[in-house]
Amino acid sequence: MGKFRIDLLRHGESQYSHTLRGHLDDELTVKGWQQMQSTIEQVTDQTWDVIVTSSLKRCACFAEQLAKTTQLPLLLNHDLKEMYFGEWEGVSTQQIYETSPELLANFWQKPSQYCPPQAETLMQFQTRILKGFQDLLLDMQNQNWQRALVVTHGGVIKLLSCLAQQQPLDDLLKMQAELGKLYSFEFFEEEEQLTFILK
């Protein structure tokens, strides 16, 4: 299947950045847009073949604009959305701490075993994200694309970083994924297993 380079751009600051916004569809702030723009401007080798985006506005609006200016194809990938936080959607960690301190601490320390009420489990999230990337790699293979820019979310980047470094999934929330920053991975398939490393 060969190797593919995938650069993941985390969306910038959005209206509800102080909360767990999961699938909430909030817009980027002016600052958030600038964070992403300045990161893209610093990329010296912009040789992407395609731009892929989560379907949520805080990713898709910027991706659409970038696809226009770079005249690159744009793919919308619903599987690459943020983790769904159930009843914690749009709630700040401070508020959760005040009402369910134990559950919050459990989720923070062992997200593989605990999840917010009515939320997606970490395993469901992982399955969905890996499916999203497998679909993307098939597209890339079929189109002879070597390198993609994926505009996505903190949870997605943290999950891939965890898996790439073979860290336990419970370390997920300790991984780095700053607003508006770029993280690069190399993907390849070995014996039908999806493998990737941090660049």
From TrEMBL:
GO terms for cellular component: cytosol. Keywords: Hydrolase. The keyword Hydrolase applies. Substrate binds at R58. Pfam families: His_Phos_1 (PF00300). GO terms for biological process: negative regulation of glycolytic process; regulation of pentose-phosphate shunt. The active site is at H11, E82. One of its GO terms (molecular function) is fructose-2,6-bisphosphate 2-phosphatase activity. It comes from the Bacteria. This is Fructose-2,6-bisphosphatase. It comes from Acinetobacter genomosp. 33YU. The lineage of its organism: Bacteria, Pseudomonadati, Pseudomonadota, Gammaproteobacteria, Moraxellales.
